[in-house]
Design brief:
The protein is of the alpha/beta class. The chain is 35% helix and 15% strand. Strands 1-9-8-5-4-2-3-16 form an 8-stranded mixed β-sheet, with helices on both faces. α2 packs antiparallel against α9, α3 (74-87) runs parallel beside α9 (322-352) and α9 (322-352) crosses α13. The radius of gyration is 24 Å and the shape is globular. 48% of the residues are buried. The structure holds pyridoxal-5'-phosphate.
């Protein structure tokens, strides 16, 4: 008897789950330890990050692939709605990477659809910080604007906001675009006040910080009168971006999103740049959303020219596929647990390594002044951060009997994943050294970049992702402790 497509799909998905439950046990979150392969210290790799998923994601990917719509469709639409709902922003637009999200967020601010005095033009300046991931900055240069680099605080990893005013140039500065470093919110209290004072756009690169929140105290000029104001990072600026590459807080393989916080005019611009630069905003497979597909006269085109083929921007095509969005929807359901696991793992590492202060300067959340086993102490601003950590950042003290590279090599040999803070001081990277030679006016440095250089020379980060079990963290702590003590003895 021939089986119907629905029956066949059901059977395939049942087998898919069975397959995933057998083949992918190593990717389960650590709290499902009883179903994961046993951890063998020194033999099992302890990654710094990676995909964490179960049969739900695999079923969603196969189900969507069987439907074979492929391009962004009903899963994409639902994912965008659900992500925007989680964050509490006006809209989220799915894209194919965090780098694409940054490219689009910045490109949107160059649109002629924005008020003339706010639109970013060739030669306008955008304040960013020197240490971080290159594609936070690249879109500024790619659009012909000028990044102005301020320093980073090596302890938080974030921009040193004391340099903001010195970086500002009346009439030229149009925006601030920077990342919340490794799941640690930057000083939003100060950045928001600065942007408001000078009428600047704020783009938050939230790629490494999904699930962080920030609190402004009662009565803060950017907050509210009668109560403190707490919101997720990625919801304070005008636009924000996410990455869903595997090490990030949730994954769809490759993927990302641009969040439109309030202003739907920006949604029109981001969407246009994402979708070939077109003026039309119909979803894939849909015609005539505007109700006047053949009723427009734009540019020098004849009246009635098909709106689907009218282009108002020099755009791209940066959409993800629908099966990616289907995976992302399953991951979103797990996000609160993932965020909690990252916080718990950071705390476990901090407790475990607490006796090693003589070797390391440990990272602190922005606005924290110290860590104690009972919690953080905080500065007098009243602002607070709640970190959804991407990694556990530490600086190897110049007085330690080993260098950062020695530790990194040792951890590698012990199969413990570790990373440098991305590109370190980006201005020391070959691309910026060359740019300085080719086009000296392509960027500007606002002050000394000693913090960014310290990050480049001394910083290393360890994993905190939800795939790390207690045993793995204990192994990390023991390995690092033995290494430090052994180096002191040597
Ligand atoms: C702060 C930051 N922004 C942007 C990106 C780029 O994201 P993607 O790898 O999805 O392009 C990354 C990558 O890890 C990042 O760390």
């Amino acid at each position: 008897m021939n089986r119907s497509p629905a029956e066949l799909k059901e059977e395939i998905l049942r087998l898919t789950r069975e397959y995933a439950e057998t083949a992918h046990r190593a990717f389960l979150p650590a709290d499902q330890g009883e179903h994961r392969p046993a951890f063998v210290p020194g033999e099992t790799t302890v990654p710094y990050a990676g995909r964490v998923f179960d049969a739900d994601e695999v079923e969603a990917a196969i189900g969507s692939t069987l439907d074979f719509w492929l391009t962004l469709g009903k899963e994409g639409e639902a994912f965008e709605r659900e992500l925007a709902g989680f964050l509490g922003v006006k809209r989220s637009l799915a894209v194919n990477s965090g780098s694409s999200a940054n490219l689009l967020a910045f490109a949107a601010l160059t649109s002629q659809k924005l008020p003339d005095e706010r639109r970013i033009r060739h030669g306008d300046e955008v304040i960013t910080c020197a240490a971080g991931f290159p594609t936070t900055v690249a879109p500024i240069v790619q659009a012909g604007a000028v990044p102005v680099f301020i320093d980073n605080d090596p302890v938080t990893g974030n921009a040193d906001c004391a340099q903001l005013e010195a970086a500002y140039q009346p009439g030229r500065t149009k925006a601030v675009m920077m990342a919340h470093a490794l799941g640690n919110p930057f000083d939003l209290g100060r950045v928001l006040a600065f942007c408001q004072a000078h009428d600047l756009w704020l783009v938050e690169d939230n790629c490494d910080a999904l699930g962080c929140s920030y609190t402004l105290p009662t009565g803060h000029p950017q907050g509210q009168a009668g109560a403190a104001l707490t919101q997720w990072t990625g919801t304070w600026g005008d636009l924000s971006t996410q990455s869903f590459y595997p090490p990030h807080h949730l994954t769809m393989g490759e993927g990302g999103a641009v969040n439109i916080v309030r202003d739907m005019k920006l949604k029109v611009c981001v969407e246009s740049f994402r979708d070939w630069g077109r003026d039309c905003w119909c979803a894939s497979g849909v015609d005539n959303t505007c109700g006047k597909r053949f009723g427009w006269q734009l540019g020098e085109l004849p009246e009635g020219y098909d709106h689907k083929y009218i282009y108002s921007h020099l755009g791209y095509n940066l959409k993800p596929l629908d099966p990616q969005a289907a995976i992302g929807r399953q991951q979103l359901k797990k996000l609160p647990a993932f965020i909690q696991a990252r916080k718990d793992n950071w705390e476990s590492l901090r407790h475990g390594l607490a006796d090693l202060e003589e070797f390391f300067e440990f990272s602190l959340p922005t606005h924290a002044t110290a860590w104690t086993p009972g919690g953080f102490t905080w500065d007098a601003t009243g602002c607070r951060t709640d970190c959804s950590w991407f990694g556990f950042l530490l600086l190897v003290r110049p007085t330690a009997p080993f260098r950062r590279a020695d530790l990194a090599k040792h951890l590698d040999a012990k199969k413990i994943g570790n990373r440098m803070f991305f590109g370190g001081n980006l201005l020391r990277q070959p691309v910026f050294v060359q740019l300085r030679k080719d086009r000296p006016a392509a960027f500007r440095v606002a002050g000394e970049l000693t913090g960014a250089d310290r990050i480049m020379n001394e910083a290393i980060f360890l994993g905190v992702y939800p795939g790390l079990s207690g045993e793995m963290i204990a192994y990390m702590v023991d390995t690092i402790t033995d290494f430090c003590r052994g180096s002191r003895a040597a």
